[in-house]
Write the structure tokens for this entry.
Amino acid sequence: MAKTVIPNRPVPELDPVNDARHVLADEPLARESVPYVFCIPEHKIAALVYTWVNKASQAGAVFAAFGPGVGDQPIVEHIPDREVPASQNFDDWRVGSFYLRQDLKLKNAEFGIDTPRAGLQCRFEALHPAYAYGFHPDGCPRWAAHNRLEQAGRISGTLRLGDRTITFSTTGARDHSWGTRDWLTPQHWKWLHAQADGVCVHAWQINAYGRTDLRGYVFREGRMAEITEVDTDFKVDAQYRQTHIDSLVTDSAGRTTRVTGEYFAVFPLLPGPQTTLNEGAMECRIDGKPGVGWTEFQWPTDYLKHLTSTAP
């Protein structure tokens, strides 16, 4: 049985050493990854960057920009795995044309990419201390990582799409996981980040091993508390791309927070042939206040094909 989060239990502070690269265990599925996601709703554009490295120090990255403001087709730049120095850390991380410079203090970062089709130069400024799944009484799900942090922040910079350049300031999120990642264990998950008027909400509801696990936090009025319950209703289109979400979140401080959102862009990210991650960017409201949000709905690819083939 899952352990219950203790009411009003203070959330610990994560050691900033975890902003850096980790020494991975000698396990077949050991890896480390760092994604950043954000959307620019006034332009109907969403973007993500994602970099990873395995125990053999082989690293890759992907950049995607999608949504009506990009056009009918997303712009995707994939940097295939290649060897990087074992000494290369996330304060000066380079994989092809992608770069990431985290301050190794769990506060600020810069990242970007430059290709003929697109360019990105961004700055991330944390809105709250990092939350780690290892803080939960049950720890981080063992198939996902040894540990994993989540953090919302302000993201500003410039995005170039062809010969068009957009200057933006928005909010978004990052995570950082290290350890085993078995993409085939979970049957489904809903990963949510949303920010509005100083309130940040994160929830990860996971179906794996025949049970449902929950991780996440609410940060508001300067206080972080762990999620104890989430009740989510959602709508999808015929391709099972999310179109609407309504989540009522309860945290260990006894607070309830409602997140509602309408999606303007969804992009299927495939970490492997058997897993589809529907990345969705939305304009949202948190307790009625306007903001932005992002969800990732995970589906086994064959199951998703079945759902879409039988959709009314």
Q: What stands out?
A: The two ends are 37 Å apart (CA to CA). The longest helix spans residues 301-310. The CA atoms of residues 281 and 294 lie 5 Å apart. The chain has a mean pLDDT of 97.
